[in-house]
Amino acid sequence: MVRGITGLLTAGLASVLSSMMPAHAETLGLVGPNARFEIDAETLAVSAAFHGGDLFQVTEATFGDGQMAEMSGSAGGYRWRLTAEAGTYQVVARLDGDALVVSITAHEAGELTWPRSPVGLAQSYALPVFGEGRLVEADNTLWAEFLSSRMGEMHGSELTVPVWTALGEDVSASYILETPLDAGLILANENGRLRVGARQTYTRFNLDEPYTVRIALGAADPVVGAKYYRAYLEGTDHFRTLAQKTADNPAIGKLAGAPHLYVHDKGPLKPGDIIDWKGFVQTFAARRDEAGAFSAMLWGAVPSDYRGEINGIIEEAAGPQGYVSGYGRVAMTRFINLVLPEVLAVSSVAPLPGGHDPAAQDAWIRAVRAKLTAEFPGMMADPPSWGDGLSTGLVEALQGAGIESAWIGTSDWREALWHPEAVEAAKNAGYLVGTYDSYASAHPEDLADSWQTAQQGQAIFDDAAYTNEDGSTVTGFAGRGAYVNPLRVAEYARIRMKAVSEAAGFNSYFIDVDATGLSYNDYSEDHPTGRALVMAELQDRIGYIANDLELVTGSEGGTALFGRDLVFGHGITTPPFGWMDGRLKRDRESAFYLGGYWPEEAPPIYFKQVPVPDEMAEFMYAPEYRLPLYQIALHDSIIATHHWEYGSLKPVGQRDRIGLTQILYMVPPLYHLHDSVMTRDLPVIEAYHKTWRPLHADLWDQQMTGFVFLSEDRLVQRTEFANGTRLTVNFDDRPRQLSTGETLPVRGIAVENTDGTRIIVMPAID
């Protein structure tokens, strides 16, 4: 058995490790407890073997013209200077247990493509792509073309786990990027065959800092590289377990058995909050021209393009036989929500740049309630129940469905401030409540098509933007504004997050983008910053939420570099993929169109259920290609789930697969809720919850210790956890027989633990 790669070499191995210089002086040898490596010091080609086996190449030559100089060696490894046409490098090679660790330092800007898996080694690759990971045959032309054309080169800072494995017939080589920030994973299509390697970019910010790669041999196990990376990660400051985090903040335990729910509002009211619609509209019509009346204030703020529609609703409600249609109720509610901030100004309490004043919202919503109930007496529901997203009614509905724990996130922190009783009801029910926030993009104050989180004040927009090496500004998300250097936003972000969380009474907080690892080298003359400092600030920003504000902290993505303080991440189980196929995001006539952002109170991009093109379904959802690389490394450190654009119920035809994957990997489902879809979606959520929750409540913080395909077609799969529990799932559309003789039905799950084995069946979702 191959021993762990993190053990240090013992003194007794020193004699074995002494210079192993075969025929050519440029070939360097290193011998570990179970494996040996040979390095061509002039080309950086590497060969390796287990003891007793033949050497085989694990890394191709990078240089054909290299010259070695200033060689020094010892029992601990070798150091030399390598000069080639591409540049001059200092190279250090050593062993850490049975792993080869190579560090390469450059003294001038440029690129280095190394290591690259040889053609003759890999029959398949375990790759950290699409969040969790995928197993891809090297000669699969469809995958080779797709990965090379859509991904090409993936920034190392954005890899969920910076490791890939080349799998041979009975052996593997795993490559860990210890310093991934300025590296990239290269996915190339060479004559229909997938080739994988890495490229380091040396810039003015990282010169004289080593680029370090760790290479280890292993069995032909697709998750062996993730196991090696987990062992390595435990020795860094980027890893803490959920148990350790929960000891610091017991509220994290509320995520056990908790689905993740995004709720949506676009104002204080929902149509159901008006209980006498005819009377409401008739009263509004009678008083809209009355000086000083609140109806007149509302009417005066109506944009001209709304007035015709409102007049139509008034005509509909007129007379003894009048009524207000469903569409009219939605339109009238939308209009009131739109104009309320204009007719009732917020009195400043603690204003912040960007036009924010969270502390002022409590007084404002109470004034809104008082004005509306006085203007329309007896026509409105009790104000604490208002709202079609976060509301006391939502909390009651969740409790009625047997959902004992949940993470509830608002898409706008004002949704919580409009419904303070709902926040308290949710917390009293044992739920975590937080909001979406972001500091990645900043917009100028005069940008018409803006959004709340990007409004950080003109000074930040003017002063904090990243600058490219050519002097241009790095354009912000969706082509608007600018992406900003987090160090320039650090003080403002902390002030605003504290103000928002305290005003709303949150016990959780979600920060967008940060844990994706998205970062840039900033070439600004005023604030030049390398990726390492940028990443440190993103890590510290998440740490501020977790440790200073003491909130259960989530972010988009959740790469391994954020394992110190991050508790949950959205976008690992299913990452964003609409950009890869124009039919999903741009073609509004396509059956696969994900939907837009209007109406704002329930955007179709979250609520519209659509099929996925067959090709995309194979890449994103086919179980025979999926690998839990992320879970093997981080299941007991970061709770991962889907990106909010690809919730558990979004993709028609894939929802059974998704439900089974959530059970196999022991990750939570993610849903979007709004008053308009509760009847459609809550029964499905409730039925699935009864199967999923008891398992997750036991396994949510357990290390995933193993994964295996149990059938040749890879449709029967098993995961294993540190407490000894094993979950076996049947993804096939027919029953399958296990080696124990038991039959696993369609959507069947075998649960093995100290109590024995039981078979459960997940309810159909598609």
From TrEMBL:
- Name the keywords, alphabetized: Lipoprotein, Signal
Per the UniProt record, one Pfam family is Glyco_hydro_129
Q: Hey, what's the signal peptide range on this chain?
A: 1-25
Out of the domains of life, which is the source? Bacteria
| Descriptive protein name | Lipoprotein
Taxonomic source organism: Aquisalinus flavus
Q: What is the lineage of its organism?
A: Bacteria, Pseudomonadati, Pseudomonadota, Alphaproteobacteria, Parvularculales
